[in-house]
Write a structure and sequence with these properties.
Kelch-like protein diablo; BTB-kelch_protein; disordered N terminus; Neuraminidase; single chain
C-alpha cells in the first residue's frame, strides 16, 4: 500500500506518498458492515456464551419470528422513514425517556392495550406511583390496575394490594365503588383487605416516600394558537398555560399566521385548522398544522377540501371533524392514520356567521345561527344530521361551546355578552345559568377538572382575565393568579406536562 503512518508517541503522521483510490470502496464497506451484522446473529446463538463481543450493531428489528441486527447510520442513509423516526432519538436513553413520557401522558388511551397489560410488576408500579402520570380521574388509574391484574390473574393477584396503595381512595366516586362491588368478582375478593378506613388513606404496605405527592396528574395544559395581537394584527405565536403551576410560557409558533381558526386535541397532538390570514378578504384557509408537544414542533398535514373560518371542530372516534363555518354547510373528517380528509354529509342549513361544535355521547352537536335552526346533531354511525332546536337562544354569533356529561355549555357572544347557558341533550331544553364576571365575544371554553373555564375573548380589547365555573354551585370565580390576553385564535388541551 502506498500510504503509510509512523507512530511518534501519541501522534500518527501520514507520509508523503501517491494518493490511492479504490472504486469498490463503498462496496467493501457495506460488505464489512453486513458481515458484522451477520456475525452478531451467529454469535448470539453460538459464540456469545464463550465470551465473544457481539455488540457492534445498534439495535434489533424484530419482524415476525426473525431478528434483524442493524446499523443506525445505514438505516438513516437509505431510508427516509427511519431517518425521520431516528432524527431526535440519538441514544437508547433518549428513546427510553421518550417512551416513558408518552406512557405517562397518554395513559388513559393505553390501559386496555396488550403492551400495557404485558408489562412486569415493577414497571406498572413505577407508572402508577408517578407524580407525572396524567389521568382525567382517579377511576382510570384504579381501572388500569384491575385490567393488568386480570390479564394474568393467578400470578398477579398477589400484587393487587400493593398497587392499590397508590390509589387516592378519597377521590373515587362512591357510585364507581358500588358498581365495582356489585359486578367485579376480583374487587369483591380483596375488597376488605384494601379499602382504607377513616384512619388511613393508603394501604399500610405502601412505603410513605413512594406514594404520589400531588394531584397535578389530573390537570392538562392549555395551548393558545394564533389569533389577534396588539394593533389588530394577525398572529402565529403560541403559548401554553400550565394550570398546575400557574404559569404561562411560549412554545414554537405556527408555520402560518391564522385568526378565526379552530383547534382540536387528539392522541396527544394539537391540530390548528383553517382560519384567515387577512381580515379584509374571503380567502379562507384550507391548510392544517399539527403540533407535537414532545418535540415542540408544528408540521403541515394534508389540507382540507374546503377553506373555512369561524367553524366548529371536534374529535370523535379517533377522527378530527370540521363542521360548517361562515357561509358554509360542508363537513369533513380527518384520519391521522391515512393523513387524508373525507367528505361527510352537509349540515341541514348554511351557517350565517359561523358555528361551534362539541361531542356528547355518540353524537356531534353544532351550534350556530342559520335560517333553518341553530342547533344540529350528527350521528356518524348513521351518517345523518337532525335539527334539534330552532329557537334563538344564543344571539347572532361569538358564542363558544363545550360539552360535559350530557350537556352543552354555551358562553359569551357578540355585544359582548357575559351569558352562560346549558342545553340538556336528554330533555332538549335550555337552562340559563349564572353569568360570567366579564362579557366576552369569542372566548375559549373548556372543561378542566370538573369545572368550566373561560379564557380570553374580546371586550373593547383583548380580555386578559380567566374565570372558572363550578357546575354544582352555579358560580363563576375569577382566577386572579393568571392573565392571558388572547382572542380570535384557537385553544385546546394538551394532556402532558410541558415546561
Amino acid at each position: 500500500m502506498s500510504s503509510k503512518t509512523f507512530n511518534n508517541g501519541n501522534m500518527c503522521e501520514p507520509s508523503t506518498a501517491k494518493a490511492y483510490s479504490n472504486p469498490n470502496y463503498s462496496h467493501v464497506v457495506l460488505e464489512a458492515l453486513n458481515k458484522q451484522r451477520l456475525d452478531r446473529k451467529v454469535s448470539k446463538k453460538i459464540i456469545q456464551p464463550l465470551g465473544v463481543d457481539s455488540n457492534r450493531c445498534d439495535f434489533t428489528l424484530e419482524v415476525g419470528l426473525e431478528s434483524i441486527y442493524v446499523h443506525k447510520v445505514v438505516l438513516v442513509a437509505v431510508s427516509p422513514y427511519f431517518e425521520a423516526m431516528l432524527e431526535h432519538l440519538h441514544s437508547c436513553k433518549g428513546l427510553f425517556s421518550y417512551c416513558k413520557g408518552y406512557i405517562l401522558n397518554h395513559f388513559p388511551q393505553l390501559i386496555d392495550h396488550e403492551e400495557f397489560l404485558s408489562l412486569p410488576f415493577e414497571e406498572v408500579k413505577t407508572i402508577i406511583a408517578s407524580d407525572d402520570l396524567y389521568v382525567q380521574a382517579e377511576e382510570i388509574a384504579f381501572q388500569s390496575i384491575l385490567n393488568w391484574v386480570k390479564h394474568k390473574r393467578e400470578e398477579r393477584t398477589t400484587y393487587l394490594r400493593e398497587l392499590m396503595g397508590y390509589i387516592k381512595w378519597s377521590l373515587l366516586k362512591p357510585e364507581f365503588l358500588r358498581n365495582l362491588y356489585r359486578s367485579e368478582p376480583l374487587f369483591c375478593e380483596v375488597f376488605s383487605g384494601i379499602l382504607p378506613t377513616n384512619k388511613r388513606k393508603f394501604s399500610s404496605d405502601t412505603p410513605p416516600l413512594q406514594r404520589r405527592k400531588s394531584q397535578n396528574r389530573y390537570l392538562p395544559s392549555v395551548i393558545f394558537a394564533g389569533g389577534q395581537k396588539e394593533g389588530c394584527k394577525i398572529s402565529k405565536s403560541c403559548k401554553v398555560y400550565d394550570i398546575s403551576n400557574r404559569k404561562v410560557f411560549a412554545v414554537s409558533p405556527l408555520r402560518k399566521r391564522r385568526t378565526d381558526l379552530s383547534t382540536v386535541s387528539l392522541h396527544g397532538f394539537v391540530y390548528a385548522i383553517g382560519g384567515l390570514v387577512n381580515w379584509f378578504d374571503k380567502d379562507y384557509l384550507q391548510t392544517v398544522e399539527r403540533y407535537d408537544p414532545v418535540f415542540d414542533e408544528w408540521a403541515k398535514i394534508t389540507p382540507m377540501h374546503t377553506g373555512r373560518c369561524c367553524f366548529g371542530a371536534c374529535a370523535y372516534n379517533d377522527l378530527v371533524y370540521v363542521v360548517g363555518g361562515q357561509g358554509n354547510s360542508t363537513v369533513e373528517n380527518y384520519n391521522p392514520l391515512t393523513n387524508k380528509w373525507y367528505k361527510c354529509p352537509d349540515t341541514p342549513s348554511q351557517f350565517d356567521y359561523g358555528n361551534r361544535a362539541a361531542v356528547i355521547g355518540n353524537s356531534i352537536y353544532s351550534l350556530g345561527k342559520t335560517r333553518g335552526g341553530i342547533l344540529f346533531r350528527f350521528d356518524p354511525r348513521e351518517g345523518e344530521w337532525d335539527t334539534v332546536d330552532r329557537s334563538d337562544n344564543i344571539g347572532k354569533n361569538g358564542v363558544e361551546v363545550t360539552s360535559y356529561d350530557h350537556s352543552l355549555y354555551c358562553i359569551g357572544g357578540y355585544s359582548p355578552k357575559s351569558t352562560c347557558k346549558r342545553f340538556d341533550a336528554r330533555s332538549n331544553k335550555w337552562q340559563t345559568l349564572s353569568s360570567m364576571n366579564y362579557g366576552r365575544d369569542c372566548p375559549y371554553a373548556m372543561i378542566i377538572g370538573y369545572e368550566l373555564y373561560a379564557f380570553g375573548g374580546w371586550n373593547k380589547g383583548r380580555v386578559a382575565s380567566v374565570e372558572h365555573y363550578d357546575i354544582q354551585l352555579d358560580k363563576w370565580t375569577i382566577d386572579d393568579s393568571i392573565n392571558i390576553k388572547n382572542c380570535f385564535g384557537g385553544a385546546a388541551l394538551i394532556h402532558r406536562a410541558l415546561s
